[in-house]
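Late entry, evening session. Most of the bench is empty. Finally got around to the prediction I had been postponing all week. Sequence below, unchanged from the version circulated by S.P.
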Amino acid sequence: MRTFILSLLLLLNVSCFALEFTSEEKQWIEEHPHITYVGDPAWLPYEGYDKQGKYTGIVPDVLALLSQRLPFDFKHIQTATWQESLDKVSSGKVMMISQSQYSNAQTDLEFVQTSKNPVVIVMQEGEDYVSSLYQISHKRIGLIDNTTTTPVLQSKYPHMQFITYKSAHKGLEAVSVGKIDAFLCSLPRASYIIAQNRLLNLRIVGKSDVDTSLGFGIHADYPLLVSIMGKLVANTSEEDVHVVLAKWSRQEYVEKVDYTLLYISLGVFTTIMLMGLGFYLRLKYESQKRLRLQAQMLEQQAKMAAMGEMLDAVAHQWKQPLNALSMYADLLKSDFDEGRVDRSYIDEMLEGVNTQIEHMLVTLREFRDFFRPNQEVSSFLLSEVIDSACLLVKDEFLKHTIEIEIDVDEDLKLHGNANEFKHLILNIINNAKDAFNEKQIKERLIRIHATIKGKVAFLSIEDSAGGIDPEVIEKVFEANVTTKEKGKGTGIGLYMSAQIVEKLKGSISVHNTDTGACFEVVIPLD
């Protein structure tokens, strides 16, 4: 049973994240559900222990992100020192170690890079933006004496007299009190230490041309783990990794403007800008007016198209219970004539009648709420909106033998207009229904998956309807673009869906899979 579940998870991940594993890699994954690793116990924000003794940092957050793609359990083995960690991985007692690319060069381990961070320049607030180290070569610049990037910087800039410190904390404190003019450190460490120690007079004013690459050194006994980790990293979006890094990197570069140059530039362009300003404002007003009218027309067209589809759905939803009520009436008459009616018979008939009436009332309530004008913005559970949308098309989809699989995080909440988002879901799944019918697809399946990834909500709706024509797939979110046969589509539904997502500050995209189309919606949760 466990092997079946792992194989199924692998199959789903290959489909959703384009991961392609060899048979040897799949077998290795099944045989090694626990991946052991060590790291530096005092390397925050990359990794370390907080005041409560909890292992935390960028490394465990990145591994948690990677583990979403496979049924891996990345198990951290606690060590007291960095040397102890090196000894454990070198001897093969653990599979891998978190480290930088430069420190990996001192070992025999295979390195898999997960992220790259610049070595930044930290100076006191008020200093100008620094575009190159040569710009401040005459100043007192500090480095950490026990990091692998230090010899790299010393080799690239041999003429500079760097001052070394035992830790980044000591170096940044030296800048804060004026002992040195600048300090070089990786972006996450610099921003973390500045924030944690409230060194409020410091700012990141630029970056060097040296980067430090974070990743994992993997023991030579595990060559398949090297290839598996490489594929996991390659198929993890940069956006998700940036979310992790942003959690620990709160500082940004502060570019100090050369106001003299700014004033000269303003003097050159002011005359041209004033001459064109009147024309620009008039053109902008006319354009906005046309856009408002066009948006109103498109919205009205979308509502009318949706109303026609929904009324057709109501007819299908009520057809079965009305037939059942008619059957109950015929049975009651014939059984009464034959003398079979007693109290228990009446109770049984009433129960059946009430069940059908309740189904019709629920359907009516759902459709009434859907069409009721409602601009209210509030928090809503995405699972409830999806369930409600699926209820509206339940009987219609049963008629066309379409199966819907739903896998939605029950705690996922969005902030917006729930009715509009329900409209978005209906647009996409109804388009899939039409594609099934037009192409006469036999295996008809729609998968709806939604989860939380970092600080964003991720929703995917994937069908097995054969995909979208490559010639129009890039334009499906534009107004009046349709993939349906002439006279059967308005080209409004997906355009309005894109507008709904835009209101939520999110993005919507679509791509073809091996079996159909996959729509992906990403919405920030904050």
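Two things to note before I forget:
The first strand starts at residue 34 and ends at 38.
The chain is about 50% helix and 20% strand.
Will write this up properly tomorrow.
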